[in-house]
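Lay summary. Proteins are chains of building blocks that fold into shapes, and those shapes determine what they do. In this project we predict the shape from the chain. Here is one chain we studied, written as its sequence of building blocks.
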Amino acid sequence: MLALGSEELRIAESALKEFFPQSIKVYGCLFNLNREKPHNLEVLVDSWPDFKTLICKPHSKSVRDREGVFNIYSVFSKDKDNLRELLEETGVVDWSAFTLFAGIEIGHVDMMKELAVSKNTPSKIGSVMHVMMLRDVKRLPQLPSESDASPRLSSLDESHAELVNKTWSFGGTEISYRSVKNYIQNFPNFCILDESGSPVAWILLYQHCALGLLYTLPECRRKGFARVLVTVMSKHLLSQGYPVYCFIEEGNEISYRLFQSLGFEEDPDYRAVWFELNCP
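And here is the predicted shape, written in a compact code that computers can read:
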């Protein structure tokens, strides 16, 4: 097990591009690490420079946001056996603590289950996700030019964190509030304002660069706001060199159809799994 330094992180970011979509979440983590965004991650590999497995794990579980409290790991591996060997090394995983492997390749899940059993650790699949990527800005629709009828685009600020938190499906707590506040303060976001200047729809970016927290207030739906926000955010991210992708839970047909209509594509043979250890 080796921990990567700043120069190795830049090399690894470039190398991971070859393995999209399997590597996209880890790539997103490294993308922000290499641009000095706030983080609580250390990055481990099995060997260097010819690595097979790369793991992003919390540096400190004492950080009181979702990333720290939920002990979230991001993993990319070209070799299931190699991944198992690394996870079994002392210090990589605390098998007695709640741990969330967020976005692990579905083909690794049977091995993860077997390893958890060998450690006498309860485990379960939390969610199975489509991974949808946008590679070409030309696939996005043209938005109407500014007019009195156009939505009023803006950005969220810290004062909006509580509104976003209470409407987020994983929000509603002080811990999630801290995560939302971090997303707003440090990563791109867009919102649509009503006539009084209050946000009625918004989209944010997670620390691993995935689009997320897309939401429209119920009374303002069916106006195309989500379509506008995804388009504007995607164009902005592509212009800044970001990867543009999202996770959509299996069964969420409305979101799937929205992103598909905007040119996002998936590898039909690939799914990402949220895999939990020591589930509460």
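What the prediction tells us: The CA atoms of residues 96 and 278 lie 7 Å apart.
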